[in-house]
Structure formats: C-alpha cells, structure tokens
Write a structure and sequence with these properties.
87 residues, mainly alpha, 3 helices, globular
Length: 87
C-alpha cells in the first residue's frame, strides 16, 4: 500500500508491484545512505516515459529527477534487468 505519496493514473498498481518487487535488487545500501523506495522511483521513470518529458521535469512526488535517472541508467546497463515483463 502506498502511503508516502499520492497515487496518480499511470502509477504501478498493487498487483503490478507485487509481481515486480521480487525481481528488484535489495534496498539495503552497500555503501552510503538509504535508497529511495524502488516503487516511487519506478513510477517516476514510467511517468517520464509515458509523458515524453525530460528527466528534470519529473514531478517531485517521485523523488529527485537525478535519482530516477541514475536508477534507470543503472538498471538499463545491468544484467539483472528483466526487459519483457508481461503485466
């Protein structure tokens, strides 16, 4: 259940999140501080893709645009990314 930010059209449903969450890396930091929640960041990435916006135009409810971009770039270059998810 999302309780830290407002749910908007296009955000992952609880069912979609339930299927995706086990595929993502742990949020336990290897170094540095805490990571922003994957769900919040993924919703920001999806918002950006759906709207064709620039990274710096991502709404604040999804966290810093740099965080969304950095996580996206990390996952795209990672072998852990699953490209063909059928929701």
């Amino acid at each position: 259940m999302i309780d830290r930010w407002r749910v908007v059209a296009g955000d992952l449903s609880d069912q979609e999140w339930g299927r995706l969450e086990p595929l993502l890396p742990s949020l336990t930091p290897r170094r540095g501080g805490r990571w922003r929640p994957h769900r919040q960041v993924i919703n920001g990435i999806l918002w950006r893709i759906d709207n064709g916006a620039k990274w710096d135009q991502i709404p604040e409810r999804y966290g810093p645009a740099k965080t969304c971009y950095d996580r996206f770039a990390r996952w795209v270059t990672s072998t852990e990314v699953v490209y063909d998810l059928d929701f």
